[in-house]
């Protein structure tokens, strides 16, 4: 079984994922980092060279490999839910958590995010409108994919991670 963290950019997937993995003694895997390692270029370069379609194809191949692993906490790319095969694989091989944040919180975190320049723009509308538009498009996809939703606004990564672990403990007791 794996734990998958989905959600928009800057909702805490990597930070929370690393914490949860450490607490559980599991490996942490970042799907975007795996794409960069596998293809030897940044996501920004993949998108520039092959467009979003090329990136999504690479993401799908990486997710196939990740979903074949066991006892991993996985921080996914924000758009992983666009491909129904990714969602199906995650649901079959683990527990999917949607880490949620308000668009305002996301914008604030994006301004502080040191990885930001490596993340290509998703639209040509500018950051503020992009967050609103893309978040609105993806929200139903996140909702359908997730078994659990966790609001991250105003919470530390540890507090979010504790909620993830508590949901897992309760789920394991039911089985």
Tell me what the CATH architecture is: 3-Layer(aba) Sandwich
Q: How many beta strands in the DSSP annotation?
A: 5
CATH class: Alpha Beta
Shape: globular
Proportion of residues in helical segments: 55-70%
Largest beta sheet: strand ordering: 2-3-1-4-5
Low-confidence stretches: 121-125
What is this entry, summarized?
With 175 residues, the protein is of the alpha/beta class. It is 59% helix and 14% strand.
Question: Could you walk me through the main structural features you see in this protein, from its secondary elements to its overall organization?
Answer:
This protein has a single domain (2-174), classed as P-loop containing nucleotide triphosphate hydrolases (Rossmann fold, 3-Layer(aba) Sandwich). It has 7 helices and 5 strands. It has helices at residues 13-24, 31-39, 43-67, 84-93, 103-112, 127-145, 157-174; strands spanning 2-6, 27-30, 72-75, 94-100, 148-151. It has a 5-stranded parallel beta sheet with strand order 2-3-1-4-5, with helices on both faces. Helix 1 packs across helix 7 and helix 2 (31-39) crosses helix 3. The longest helix is centred in the first third of the chain and has 25 residues, at 43-67. It is globular and about 45 Å long.
């Amino acid at each position: 079984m794996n734990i998958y963290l989905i959600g928009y950019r800057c909702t805490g997937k990597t930070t929370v994922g690393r914490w949860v993995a450490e607490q559980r003694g599991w490996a942490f895997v970042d799907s975007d980092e795996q794409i960069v390692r596998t293809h030897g270029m940044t996501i920004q370069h993949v998108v520039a060279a092959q467009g979003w379609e090329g990136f999504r194809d690479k993401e799908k191949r990486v997710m196939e490999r990740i979903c074949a692993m066991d006892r991993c906490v996985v921080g996914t790319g924000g758009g992983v839910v666009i491909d129904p095969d990714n969602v199906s694989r995650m649901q079959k091989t683990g527990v999917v958590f949607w880490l949620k944040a308000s668009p305002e919180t996301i914008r604030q975190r994006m301004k502080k995010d040191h990885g930001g320049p490596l993340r290509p723009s998703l639209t040509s509308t500018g950051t503020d409108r992009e967050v609103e538009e893309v978040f609105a498009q993806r929200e139903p996809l996140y909702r359908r994919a997730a078994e659990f939703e966790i609001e991250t606004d105003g919470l530390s990564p540890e507090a979010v991670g504790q909620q993830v672990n508590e949901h897992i403990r309760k789920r394991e007791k039911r089985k």
